[in-house]
Amino acid sequence: MYYSFMRFRKHPVSLALMIAVAMASCSKNNSTSTVTGEVHYAVSNVAGAYPSQTTYVQGLANLNISQLSNANAAESPNFASQWTYDDAVYLTSFGAPATITKYTFDATGKAVVAGKLVVPGANTFSSVEFVSKTEAYASVGGGLARIVKFNPTALQTTGEINLSAFAKPGAASVYYLGMKARDGKLFLGIQYFNASFNPLADSAFVGVIDLAAGKTEKLLADARTSNIFLAGSSVSGFATDAAGDLYIQGQGSGAAPSGILRIRKGATSFDADYFFNLKAATGKDCSGLYILNNQAFTTRIEDATDAYETKGPNFRYYRIDLAGKTSLGDLSASLPKIYGSSTSIMRAFDAATVSFVVSSDKENSIYTYNVADGSVARKITLSAGMCTGFDKVN
C-alpha cells in the first residue's frame, strides 16, 4: 500500500504541525499585506488544528513589508503544499481525491483558481516536478503505485509511469517522497516501511525513471545512509549544484547515520567515492538539504528522541561544506529552534542573500541570511498561520 502525506495522520509529525499552527492563530487579522504592481512572490501558510485546517495563499509584488496577514489570501479548506512554476502556484491538497489546484494572480495579488487536476482513487500528491511548460510529473498515493505525467499549462493528464517494478516484499507501506528531473531521467526518493511502520531496511532508495520511454529503469540502494523521507515542498532533500551534480539527503535510521549521497552529472548511480556523514560532521542526525548561492544548508535534529517534534520545535539550521564534507556550524545562535519536520524552507532570490522560514513556538517569520557577512535578520512576520510555501513567480 502507498502513503504520501498521510504521514500527518499515521506519524507523530501531525502533532508538531498542529501545535505550531494552533500557536500561530487560525483567523485573519489586520496586519499589513497590500499589493501594488505585478506579483513576483507567492506565500502560503496553514492555520488551524488537524483535521480542521485552512491553507491561505497570496501573491506579493515585493518583500518590502514587515508583517503579512491573510487579508488578501485565497483559502483552501485543508492542508496543502505549495509548488510553483513560471507565473503560477500549484497547491496539492491533503485528502482524497488527489487534487492539484492551479492558481494565477490578479492585479491585486489575489490568487485565482485557474484549474484543477484530479486523480480519483488516490489520496494526495506527494511530490511534483516541473520540466517545462508542457511537461510535469506528480507521484500519487492511495494504493496507486504510479507517477502522473501532466501538462502544467493546460493542467491535463498526458500519461503515467507505473512504479510496480519498485515494489519490495514485506513492505506494508511505501512513500514516494522527493524527485528531481535531470538529463532525461527522473530520480525518485522511495522509503519502505514494514507493518509496524519501521523502515523495512536501513538503506537509502532512489528509483531511476527514463522520461522519454516513460518507464522505470532501475532501483538504487545505498546503506551508507537511509530514510529518504522528504517531499521537496516545505522540506527539501534533493539539490543540484552549479556543475549539475545531484545530492540527495537521507535522514538516517538504525545504524545508518543521516548523510548525503551524490549522483554525478550524466550518471545514474550513486557515486561510490562520495558520502557526507552529517551525523559525524554536525554531532547529530540532520534533515533536509539546500544548495543556494554556492553554499549548502541542512537542519540538525537537536533531540534525537523527538525527531517528529511531539514536544515542540527541535531543529536548527546549519551551514555545511559539501566538498570538504564538514560542518560550518549553526546558521545563527540567535535563531530559535524550528519545527523542521514540518517546514524548513530556504530560497535564494538574489545572489546576495538566502531567505528562509522560521516556524517556532514563539514566531512564524521569514528571515534573510547575508552571504557576505553571515548575518541574519527578520524580514517578515506572518501574523496568522505557519508558513508552508514561499517562492518566486514570474
UniProtKB/TrEMBL annotation:
<keyword id="KW-0732">Signal</keyword>
<feature type="signal peptide">
    <location>
        <begin position="1"/>
        <end position="24"/>
    </location>
</feature>
<protein>
    <recommendedName>
        <fullName>DUF4374 domain-containing protein</fullName>
    </recommendedName>
</protein>
